[in-house]
C-alpha cells in the first residue's frame, strides 16, 4: 500500500486571500520571494475544475506559509515550492519524492531531483481529486440516495449522470489502483471521526453511508461555513444514527398508533372521506420527535398548520384530541350547534395544553383550522406564532415555535409558500425559524410531478432563504426520526427555517373514494404490492430482538381497545360543540366576574386634555438631536396648528385613536406596504434622521410612560402572505388592535383567499372571532382603473345580513354580523370606529374604505367637539342644513357614502337646492343602519329616495343598499339610482371622460324631475 499522504486544507469563506498585487515579499535564504514566479507552475498542478477556482488561492496561501516556515507544509509541497523557486519548469522530469520518513531536503537536493515532476503532479492532483470527490458527495449525493419507497424514480434531475461511486473515480482523475491508497482527509469532512487518514475505498464507502442511503441532504448552497460544518457533523460522523432500545420501542409504539388509527377508521367508515395517512404513517413519529426535541430545548408552545391529509391522525396522536370527539364527527345524524355553519372534520383545528411524556414538561399545541386551499394557512400560523412570542417576551423564539406541514404539489405550486418564506427573516415578521415537513406523495391530486413543477424537488423553493433540506425515505422510520431530531436541533441552534421532505406515497387515491389507477396506473400497481411501513419496521425489530412478538401484538391490541371504547362513547354525542375545536381560545375575554360582558354601546370619546396631549406628541420629535426633513417640519407644524384650532384631519384623527388606545394598554400593530409613511405621505408615524442612517423615531411610543407598545412596520411587497400573517397575529389575542393597510384598496384582490376563506367566514366555520382591521384606500379620482376602487361590492356581497328583515337591536346586529364595513367621511368617525373596535364586548373584522383625496380635503376635518366624552361612532350622519327647517318641503333624500358626499354638497350649493334636497351619509354599510335610515325617511315624508355613488352601477354599494332601503320604507317608495352606468372596469383611464361621468351623475342626482318622468 502506498502510504504517501498530503494535507489538503481548503480556503474558507472567512479567510482573506492575498492577490498577486498584494503579495508581500518574503525572505527565504536571504532572497526576497513573491508568488508570481510560481503562479503558472502551481496552476499546472492544481485541480482547478474540481475546486471551483479556489485551489490556486489555496496553493498561494500555502506558499506564503512555506516562505515563513518551510516545515509548516508537507514535504511534497516543500519540494514543489523549492523547485519552482529554483526555476524548474512544470513539465520537467525528475525522480520520485522520498517517503514520509525521509529527512527534509535542502535546496540543493531539491534541485538535484529534477526528473520526478510527473509523479509529483500525480500526487498533488490525486489529493485534490479526493477533496473534489468529497465535495461531490456533499453536493450531489442526494441524487443517488434511496429516497423513494416505491423505487420508481419520479424525480427528474438534469441529464448529466451523477459521477459518484467506486466505478466513477476516473471522472476525478483517479483510477481503481488508487482505491487502496491512503489520503489525508480535508477539514471539510467528518467521515473520518477520530481518524485523519483513510484509504480511498473507505472514504467512498463512508460518504455513501452519509449521503446516499435513506437520507439525502441538500445544504451546500448555504453560504455560511459554520452552518455547513454543523450539518456535515450531523450526517458524516460514523455511527451517528444509533438508537437505544427504548427509542426503538417508542418509535414502534408511535408507528402502531399511527397505522392502526387509519385502519380503525377504514374499518368503521369505509365509505367516508377522511384523507387518511396511509403510505406516510411515519409522519406521526416524525412530528412527535420534533416536538420532543423542541420541548427538550425549552420550547413551551408550538403552533402547527397542515393540509387535510392526515389531519385526523395528527389531532388524535400528536395533539391528543379525545378520540370520541373525532369519531362522533362521522355521525351523519350529529346536529349542528346553534351558532355557525361549521366545517368538515378534516378542516378543523384544536388547542391543547398537556405534559410531554418524554421531557415531563408542559407544552401547548395548537393546530390551526385550514380550508381546502392548500398552504393558505402558512402565513396565518406564522402570524399567530409571532404574536405569542411577542406577548410572552420571547425575542429569540426559544419558547414559541411553528411547524408547517405541506403537500409536495402544493409546496411547489402555491405562491403563498414563497411569500411566507420571504417573511422568515424580516425583523417584524420573523418567528426565528420554522420546521417545514413535506408529505411528499410524489403526485398531486391526479397530476404527475413532471408536469406539476419545473424543479427537481418540490422543496426547491426553500433554497431562497438558505434553508437546509433533508430528504428522507418515509419507509425508514429510524432515518425519519434522526432527520427530525436534526431539524429540531437546527432550528434551536440557528433559529432559521429547515425542511424535512418525507418521500412517501399515497396508498389510496386523493381521498378514499377516488380511483388513482385512472391516472397513475404504474405507480398504483406498485403501491398495491408495497408492504406497509409498520410491517417492515416491526419485522426489522423482531429480527434484531429489540421487541418480542408478544409485546408487539399486545401493543396493537391495546390501541385497538382504546379506539373501540372511544367509538362506543362517541355514540352518546348528539351535538357538535365548536368550542371543542377552537385553535385560538381567549380565556376570560367574553366574561367579567363570571358574567357575560354588557352588549350596550359605550362612548368612545376622550377628554380634551388627552386629545391635546396626543396631538402635540403627533406634532413633535420626542428625541434630542434628531434631524428631520424640511418638508416634514412643515407637516408637523401644520398638525400643531390644528391642535391649537381644536380640529383634526384624517391623519391626526388616526393618531388620536391609536395614541389613546396605547395609553389604555392596548397593543397596536399596523402593517402593510409603506404604512410607516403612508402611501399618500400623510401618516409619518416613523421619522428618519436625515443625517444618521437607520436612526428612526416613533413618536407614538412616547405617549405615556406605561403605555402599550406600538408596532408599525412596512411589509414585503406581498398581500396574500402579509394579510394572512396579520390575521394570525389578530387571532392570538383579543386585546390588540391589528391593522393591515393595502397600498391601494384594489390590492386586496391578491389576498382574496385569506379574505374569502378565513376573515369572512372564520367565526361561522371555526368559531373563531377576530378583530383584524383592513384599511383599503378607495376613491374615483380620475387616475385610471387601477387603484380607484377597493371593490366594496365584494365585501358587501359576503355579508350574512338578510336585506329583507328589519332588525330589532343595533348592537345585536354587530354581534350577529360576520364583519363590519364602514366608509367614514369624517376624521372623527374614523377615530370612533377604531376605538369601538377595541371597546366593544366582542371582536369582528372591520373593513374600512379609506379615502385618498379626503386626506387633505379642507372640508374633511373634525372638531374636537365631535371626539369628547359622550360622543360615539355615527352609523349614519343626517343632513343638518336648511332642509331641517321645513322637512315636509324636501323633495329628495340623496343617500350616499364616503367621498362623493363632498361632491354632492358642492353641487347642491352651486345649484341652490339647499332646502329641497337632503344629503344623508351612511357611514356603516354593514350591518346596515335600518333604524337610523327609517328616522330619516320618516322625517322627509314627501321626498323620493335616491342612492348616489361614484362607482359604476354594477359595482359599489347600489345592489346592496337598494333592497335594504326598500325594506326600511316597507316597500312604499321606490329607490332611484344616480351614478355611473354599468362597466367592466372600475374606472375610466381618461381624465376628461372621468369628469364628464362625474357631472352626468351629479346632474341626475339633483334633477328633481328625472325619476318622476321615468316612473
From TrEMBL:
GO terms for cellular component: mitochondrion; nucleus; oxoglutarate dehydrogenase complex. The gene is OGDH. The keyword Chloroplast does not apply. Its main location: mitochondrion. It comes from the Eukaryota. It is found in: Mitochondrion; Nucleus. InterPro entries: 2-oxogl_dehyd_N, 2oxoglutarate_DH_E1, DH_E1, KGD_C_sf, ODO-1/KGD_C, THDP-binding, Transketolase-like_Pyr-bd. It catalyses: N(6)-[(R)-lipoyl]-L-lysyl-[protein] + 2-oxoglutarate + H(+) = N(6)-[(R)-S(8)-succinyldihydrolipoyl]-L-lysyl-[protein] + CO2. One of its GO terms (biological process) is glycolytic process. GO terms for molecular function: metal ion binding; oxoglutarate dehydrogenase (succinyl-transferring) activity; thiamine pyrophosphate binding. Its cofactor is Mg(2+); thiamine diphosphate. The lineage of its organism: Eukaryota, Metazoa, Chordata, Craniata, Vertebrata. The keyword Membrane does not apply. This is 2-oxoglutarate dehydrogenase complex component E1. Belongs to the alpha-ketoglutarate dehydrogenase family. Residues 648-857 form the Transketolase-like pyrimidine-binding domain. Its EC number is 1.2.4.2. It holds the Pfam family E1_dh. Keywords: Calcium, Glycolysis, Isopeptide bond, Magnesium, Metal-binding, Mitochondrion, Nucleus, Oxidoreductase, Thiamine pyrophosphate, Transit peptide, Ubl conjugation. It is an enzyme of class 1 (oxidoreductase).
